[in-house]
Structure formats: structure tokens, C-alpha cells
Amino acid sequence: MKNTAPLSAPDLDFETPAAKRLRRYRRFKDRLASAVVGVGGISVIVAIMLIFIYLLYEVMPLFHAAEIKPWQHEGEEVVPYERPGADADTWYLTAEEQAEVGLRVDATGQASFFDTRTGAVGLQQTLGQTEAEAVAFALGSESERTFALAHADGNLTFVKHQYKVSYPNDVRTITPSIAYPYADQELALAPAVGNTHLLAVRDSENQLMAAALDDQGQLFVSRYSKDVNFITEEVEISTDHLQLELPTEKVISLLISPETRWLFVARSDGLVVPVDLGDFDAPQIHDAVRVSDATITQARFLLGGNSLLVADSQGVTRQLFLVRDDSNNFELKEIRSFRDSTPSEIAKVAIEHRRKGFVVAEGNGQVSFYNSTAENLVLNEQLSDSGIAYLAMTPRANGLLLEQGDGKVSFWKVENEHPEVSWSSLWEEVWYEGYQEPDYIWQSSASNDDFEPKYSLAPLSFGTLKAAFYAMLLATPLAICGAIYTAYFMAPAMRTKIKPFIELMEALPTVILGFLAGLWLAPFIEKQLATVFTLLLVVPIGVLVFAYCWHNLPKSIRLRVSEGWDVVVIIPVVIILAWLCLPLSSGVEQLLFDGDMRGYITRDLGITFDQRNALVVGLAMGFAVIPTIFSITEDAIFSVPKSLSNGSLALGATPWQTLQRVVLPTASPGIFSAVMIGMGRAVGETMIVLMATGNTPIMDLNIFEGMRTLAANIAVEMPESEVGSSHFRILFLAALVLFAFTFVVNTLAELIRQRLRRKYGSL
Question: Which of 175, 308, 371, 508 has an alpha carbon within 20 to 30 A of 358's alpha carbon?
């Protein structure tokens, strides 16, 4: 008889040396894995923080306050020295590039070069090509170092101060000199002019122009036309004179614009008279413009000669320039004004040589630094107790020469690296020279030295959001719907092929997509614009119609296609519909748009059309974003426990009801994360928007207009920006804005995702 007793499990000894070693090894692996994961997570956080700190480090100098202090070594007090030259009023005060050698021209016509730090006088020279006394002075150009003197005999002398830099014994030596650009030409003012009281000059490429007000109140304009002799290549000058009939009893300043078209006559009673000299034989004297209700004390051109700065006795400095009115006529218009909190009468105005900044000296010895574009007071200091007679900025705007009321001269070091940066210049509309109204503009460089950089980040931020919006408008519905079908309805055998194929699309370099979008897709859309919109309309409607017809076919036909393989039938339908759109769109375009949809949009609707536009970016970047959203969404839906969907189906719900009320709410945190990650990808995309748009920094929702994004702007301009310049640091600020935007969006997305998880986690 067989033994039927149940078999008992053998006793296991868990205290053997091998078992102990195995447990120790497992504990070690667990701890190592935990440590590696922890270090990795902390490293990611540290790396992000370091990026943020570095961006902040590069950006912070933009907002450092300006400073002014004695140029001497730290700790020494400024020691004023006697002004060089004759004991007469100062006509002109300046310094050369290195701020080591200064120049003073006094009212006797004597030029004195001196050491800006000690006041030691070097070369002294009486200016002029005539023995007659110099009676008036006019600055020609700070950048070209030219000025002019009017003499008592009615002649005009153009003067240029020059500096030669040499290095004997490895020591920099600057040797100043005086030159006369028109030494071989006789430049005479109008014959009827008396003793010149006020003078203005301007030297352009084709002509010289001078305006002179004599002691009899007569205002003359002299034009010296330059003609090049083709044989000797010498410049021959022909002269024309013109007398202007306008009130001159209160004129304090004459200013000629750089192109020699406009003469501005500033009067002490607060009026400025623009004179159009475009037709020299028949000048147009415009109506006087009331600039101030107070007494005008100074009038000067800002850098470039487009803006007029007018200072008055109430401590207000106003910026004006010409704009066209509704009748297309020029009008001198006040753009902005500058006033200190404790203003007093403005005695002198000094202009920066390379920026749209200026310095005003008030009667109480206070000096104020302003920037016209940023529209802000940069620095305000009390530098003299005896008043200020003259002040001048050095060419690099790092030094200030100051002549006090007692005749002493002091030299100050100025630290004012980024005065053009302010909240208004970065994010608000600014009225720039040459524009008819305030606008958001990014234009960081130009071909001339008088250019005013425009650093508005608003159009770049707008372009970033615009590109992301159109890309997500295409990618989000396609990716989510595709993921729903693939994860919930598609046959497993097909899913294993389709999902890796779509995910493989993400490995395609975006530079290739941008290249194709810019060189192939953009011209194709321009030529086949009607086809594109026909596709967007016909394909969805056609698919819905086909689905309705398919649903109503006999089961004997429908069941021949296995469940989950429906896509095999849909793909040929989409291809056929797309093919049919080509001939169909031609008829639609001919019927509705007279055969030219592009022309209809531009001509009849008034909508601007650029070949590389937001539509191209939306299609190309949407194609790049689809795999990201699809992959995460598909994983989220596929990871929903089958027990939930099976339970819903068992309770009588249809597959669509189960999808809508069970699967999608459960997967909603993952779907939301997919959309946010896709949006982050779209916001940070560089190469596609760089190559598929016109890179025009404009603020226009028009889908047929281009844009410029923050990322593309950084990629384009960072290599050519000067390290440490305002342009360089503002590009880092753009990167910081992009970083902050991504951080904020991701943080909000995580908060919403956690809320969705708590809400639907009980399903």
C-alpha cells in the first residue's frame, strides 16, 4: 500500500553565510541605487540653479547705479586746476579718445591742449587762417573733431583737432595737432554780414553750410557746394548766400541738421523756428513752435542730429524731432521731457559722443545724467559750489571735464555702462527718432555710428508665444487623438510598429526640418496656398463622411477588417483626399479668389503676406512637437489599469463612454504633462524658427507674417555681440526671461498635474 501522506516543505535556513552575503549585497545595491538617484536628482537641481545664477550674474550689471568720482587714485580728493589758455570765456572743451589730453578753445580764438588730470598745458596755438580776430564759434561734429570760427573780416575757418598715438620706450604718448581741412579754399560769409554774433556750421558729403547772425540782427545762410575736379581731383567750392527774414532779437542758438536741409532757430522766449532749406533759393520758414513757457537757456543736437534738446530756466530739458502730420508735412514735435526732482536753471548741456545720452549742468552746481531712449535720470550729483560755466563728456562717456564758475577745471571719472536700459525701453512702447509714433522695436545694430540701439524684448517675447501657439495648435489635437487611438483602439500588433515609428520622428534633427521648411515648404505654401487651406477643410470632412459611410456598411463587409486595424482603411482615404485637393483647389481659387488667393489676401483684405510666416512655422514645428506629446500621452493612456476600463465595459458602458469618463480622466495628469512638455519644446525651439521665418521682430497675430523668437534672436546675435556691452547683457536677459517663462509654466503645470492626480487618483 502506497504512502499517501502529504509532502512537507523542506526547512530553509536563512542564516547561512551565502544567504547573509546575498542580503548584504542586496542592501548595498539598494543603498547605492538610492544614493545614485539622490545625487542625480540633486545634481539636476544644482545644475539648473547654476544656470540661473550665471544668467543673473551676466544680467545684474545692467541695473547697477551709475557713479561719478574724482579721476585721481582712490582716496584722493579732486583738485581743480586753473583753466588753460587765456582768461576768457570758454567756447569749446573736449578730450581725445583716451581721455588723457584735453582741448580748450577760448573766446580769443586760442586752442590749448592740456593734461586732463593735472592741467599741465602742452601745445597752444592761435586758430585761424586770417589775422582778423575770431568773433564766433560753432561746433561742426564731435565724432569728426571739427569746428569753425567766424572772423571779424567775414571769413570762416574750419578747424580739426587731431591726435597721434605712439609708443616710444613702450610708453603711450599722445601728440595733438591742429589741421585746416579747407586751408586751400577761401570760405567767406555773406558780404552783407556784420560782426558775427552767432554761428552754426555743418559739413556734409556734398556741401558745407553756415548760418550767421550778426550784431545788426541779420540772419544769413551760406552754402558752399563741393565740386571735385576730375583732372586734378581737387575740391572746388562754389558759394551761394541767402538772407532769411524772421525776427532775430531773442535768438540764442542756431542749429543745422546733418543733411543740411533744416535750420533751427532757438529763441530765449521759448520758441523754436524750423527753416526748410531743401530748396535753397526758396526756403520755407515754418511757424514758430512753442517749446517752453520759460526762458530757453540752451539748445543742442542729440547724437546724430535728428533730435533737438532744449533746456530752460525751470530745469526742464525737452527732446523734439520732426515727424509728419496728417497732411504729410513735417512738424517739430516734443517727444519727451526730463526734469530733476529739485530743478534749477540749466546753464549748460553736454552730449555723449556715441550714445543717446546727455548731461545738464544746473545753476546751483548740480550735474544730472540722462538717457533719452530709456527716458530716465541716470545720475545726479552736486559737483561744484561756485556754479558751472562749461562741461564736456569724453568720447567713451567715461569722463567729465568740468569748468567751474570760478574758472577752475576738474576731471571726473564716470561709471555709466548701461544707461539705455530701463523697464520702459525693454517692455514699453518707445518713440524712436524717425518713427511716426511710439512702438515696440528690436534693432540692435546698423551701418552708421549715430544709430540708436532699440532693445525692446516685447516683440521677441510675443514672437516666442506666437510660434509656440501655432505649433501647438497643429500638434496638440493630432498628437493627443493619435495617442488615444494608438493606446486604446489600435491592435497590439500594429501598435508595436506605429508607436516606435512615431517616436523615431523625434530623433530627426530640427535643423533638417528648418532647412526643409525654409527652402521647400515656404515656397510651396506660397504657390499652393489654396491647396493648403483646401486640405485643412476637405480632409477632416472627408474622413468624417467616410467614417459615417463605413459605419453604415453591412457587417459582412466591416467585419472583414479586424478590430483595431481600421487605420489600414483610413490611410488610403486620407491619401486620396489629399490628391483630390490639388485639382479641386484650382477651381476653388479661380471661383472665389479670381485665380490668385495670395493676391486676394494682400490686395483685397489688406493682410500682409510673407513667404516665411507663422503658418510655415506652425506646420514645421508642429511636426517636431508631435512625437513628444504623442509618446507621453500614449504611455499615460496605455498605463491606465485594464481593470478600470474592463469594469466600465462590464457595467454596460460603451468604449467611447469608457474612454471619456474613465480612461481620459485617469490619464489626464500624464496628458497635461505631455502638452506642457511639448509647449516647452516649442517655446525653446531655435533652428526651425530661425530658418523658417523672416526673423522680423514684429508684434502681429497675422498667421501670414513672420516673427522672431527669444531663442532664435540669441542664436543669431550672440556671436556678433561685444562681450560686456549692453547688447551682450540684454541677450542674456532674454535668455533669463526664456528660462523664467519655462520655469513658471512648468511649475504651474506640475501644480495642475498634482491636482488632477488627487482628483482622479481614486478611480
Answer: 175
